[in-house]
Write a structure and sequence with these properties.
The structure is a homodimer of 417-residue chains. Chain A is of the alpha/beta class. Chain A has 2 domains: 3-173, Acetylglutamate kinase-like (Carbamate kinase), CATH 3.40.1160.10; 246-417, 2-Layer Sandwich (VC0802-like). In chain A, 36% of the residues lie in helices and 25% in strands. The first copy, chain A, has helices spanning 16-31, 46-57, 63-87, 97-100, 119-126, 152-164, 197-205, 213-222, 276-286, 315-328, 356-366, 390-400, 410-416, and strands at residues 3-8, 35-40, 92-95, 102-104, 113-116, 130-134, 137-139, 145-147, 168-173, 194-196, 226-230, 239-242, 255-259, 262-271, 291-296, 303-311, 333-337, 340-346, 373-377, 380-386. In chain A, the strands form 5 sheets. Chain A has an 8-stranded mixed β-sheet with strand order 3-6-2-1-9-11-12-10, sandwiched between helices. A 4-stranded antiparallel β-sheet of chain A has the order 13-18-20-19, with helices on both faces. In chain A, a hairpin with a 2-residue loop joins strand 19 and strand 20 (380-386). In chain A, helix 6 packs parallel to helix 8 (213-222) and helix 7 runs antiparallel to helix 8 (213-222). The radius of gyration of chain A is 24 Å and the shape is globular. Chain A binds chain B through residues 16, 19-20, 50, 53-54, 56-58, 61-62, 64-66, 68-69, 71-72, 75-76, 78-80, 82-84, 86-87, 93-94, 96, 98-99, 143, 145, and chain B through 16, 19-20, 50, 53-54, 56-58, 61-62, 64-66, 68-69, 71-72, 75-76, 78-80, 82-84, 86-87, 93-94, 96, 98-99, 143, 145.
Chain lengths: 417, 417
């Protein structure tokens, strides 16, 4: 008998029929002898409906009241799912974030979980009941309703699993696991049966949007085994995101992520002096523009080129700020490009396998793809290139690193399942 | 400076524009120097929408979960109204039933309020904030969400007013006060400026649906001055329902109520023995059929006729039960009529004015209206007649007892305002 926390997102509970399907899946797990806690999001469309209502009353609604409003979304789902479970003859009990006492800080709309009381939930589980919990919401020390922000239900599920020391936290989504890359772009993309938390974090930050980064970080911190599964198909065990190193490091590369949401900016001919990086990025940060990659080349004429990427939507804003900064710094000029793509190779295997980077560059060069920026971390290599090369580059790398579904040797496949 | 509790029903907060209008009205009261607590219902249509959702998942949803679901209705309204107040520059703070701690018993869907904590609300009021509270809902001692059932928001408002020792509890509805009778039937019907709780209770139980009986009883018990006002018009002070006797008992009759929702059943020729009433009504009560009027005439041939009224929807059911009972009691036969109306004259003035009953019967007789049943209490006389006489009888009595708007002497009008 295991204790399993299952999380179902908005699409999975989008209408009464889907809620009934989720109830059958939960019942199935429960009937197999497991204790089950279910965390659910608001029905898809509900959060938008409520936000529109709020905006029609106040263009910038006070965040405390917005949280009170949005928290009703999951409250509706927990009630309906508990009813659907009752219809199947399962004893189920729903709890809002406030009823569980998911204690958060007071940062409305992006609160962080501080503590979870698990006594009542544990008591229900021990009495054989299925516990249904509203994701995305909590309560601060003054009993104010808070919400956790985007992807908050995943965080609730992981935090609940950590508090209950659950055996597994299963995140049901509209995909059936984590793939080596986006299967819509590369039909040969292979579902990973296992991936480490670190790899998942790098994939997520590089544009693979299966899970929100915060919930993966949370799982990593509290060593909660996390599994991504499809709520729309009964086949497959999804992908297990584990905090343990793979027993045998068979794969050097876990996957390839790509991100077309960025734009590149360069300040050319900056005098190469200490403090320049700060003088360039300071005003950018103050304008609430987030910076991703940063590259600075060694100077050879007393000046240097300073390049970084921002979210594409912030391109014009950042460009304006830089014009100003460049003048102050007596830099030569500001250039930029918002038609770029960042492609990342991710895998813990890189640590012990030399030559991954050169293999990557060689594969891209063979296709005549010019690399504009390079940035590396211990388990990731990211390159920036013209956006038009996205598909070609991803497919080329996918094949070059043996990720295509048919190139996988049979014994390795077996070892992974 | 007074402390005023205002309650707005579902129609008054039915859309963002109406919520904005309520906010302006609340602001107006607050700007006049009063402390204001606002109790709101779910937006009109919302409770039906949620109930339909529940039914689509479970034909008879568990009541605990139904309460969790329905409680979201008012939670949406408190958030939106607080936002609308913020837009007007008013500091407002919303609370769910659980946040206030409106403690109820555990009878889901029809819970009764046991206790209200008023410390937080009082603190907010003293800090100059407007407090917005979700009506209709509470929490039991185990932190389960409960709802108070039909008209629950009125009860919340009155209970809140009692707990805070408010100066007045104002119930905003779609009518601008309590009338001597239904103005749609009698254009001469007059709005009462004052009415006693007892009169209001009798009017309510006789079919005048301005307020739910429970909230009036509550107001009576805790001596909360209750005022009925229109949320759609700015004119008029509505009707004050007071626990005090009118200083001068100018009016003998407060109003005329009528109820076309009843049906009449008679067991004819019942042996006139002790215990017969119980043997007839026992099985009716066990079948959950509520009985209103009961009349038994003196026997003169060793048998008696036993007549009572039930809700029209229960007529067939009650008739079937009676057939059975009649056989057991060797009664002669069962007869009935579901095309009747009950008309009631209500007024504390009856206590000190003799002859009201005979004046009533005379007025009806003059119109050739046959009276089928009569039942009296200290401040009410009810008669049952064929339904087709409803309008004629109500208008006749309205005129006969000087209730028509033009027959009201000028000085009396003045004294009432």
């Amino acid at each position: 008998m295991a204790l399993i926390v299952q999380k179902y997102g908005g699409t999975s509970v989008g209408n009464p029929e889907r809620i009934a399907a989720v109830a059958r899946r939960v019942q199935h797990t429960h009937a197999a002898g497991h204790q089950v806690v279910v965390v659910v999001s608001a029905m898809s469309g509900e959060t938008n409906r409520l936000t529109t209502l709020a905006r029609s009353v106040h263009p910038e609604p006070p965040l405390r009241e917005l949280d009170v409003l949005l928290a009703t979304g999951e409250q509706v789902t927990i009630a309906l799912l508990s009813m659907a479970l009752a219809k199947l003859g399962c004893a189920a009990c729903s709890y809002t974030g406030s009823q569980v006492r998911i204690l958060t800080d007071a940062a409305h709309s992006k609160a962080r979980i501080l503590e979870i009381e698990q006594a009542q939930v544990a008591a229900d589980l021990n009495a054989g009941r299925i516990v249904v919990i509203a994701g995305f919401q909590g309560i601060d020390t003054n009993q104010n309703i808070t919400t956790l922000g985007r992807g908050g239900s995943d965080t609730t599920a992981v935090a609940m699993a950590a508090a209950l020391q659950a055996d597994e936290c299963q995140i049901f989504t509209d995909v059936d696991g984590v793939y080596t890359t986006d299967p819509r772009m590369v039909p040969q993309a292979r579902r990973l049966t296992r991936i480490t938390c670190e790899e998942m974090l790098e994939l997520a930050s590089s544009g693979s949007k299966v899970l929100q980064i915060r919930s993966v970080e949370f799982a990593h911190k509290f060593r909660v085994p996390l599994r991504v599964l499809s709520s729309f198909s009964d086949t497959g065990d999804g992908t297990l995101i584990t905090f343990e190193e793979s027993p045998v490091e068979t794969a050097r590369i876990a996957g390839i992520a790509f991100n077309r949401d960025e734009a590149k900016l360069t300040v050319q001919g900056v005098p190469d002096q200490p403090g320049v990086a700060h003088r360039i990025l300071g005003p950018i940060g103050e304008a609430n523009v987030e910076v991703d990659m940063i590259v600075q080349n060694t100077a050879h004429d007393g000046t240097t080129d300073f390049t970084f990427t921002v979210h594409r939507g912030d391109y014009a804003k950042a460009h304006n700020i830089l014009q100003n900064t460049a003048q102050q710094l007596s830099a030569r000029q500001v250039s930029g490009d918002d038609q770029i793509v960042k492609i990342s190779l991710v895998g813990v295997g890189m640590r012990s396998h030399a030559g991954i980077a050169s293999q990557m560059f060689a594969a891209l060069a063979a296709e005549n793809i010019n690399i504009q920026m390079i940035s590396t971390s211990e388990i990731k290599i990211s390159v920036v290139m013209e956006e038009k090369y996205t598909e070609l580059a991803v497919r080329t790398l996918h094949t070059a690193f043996g990720l295509d579904i048919d190139t996988q040797p049979q014994e390795e496949k077996t070892c992974r399942t």
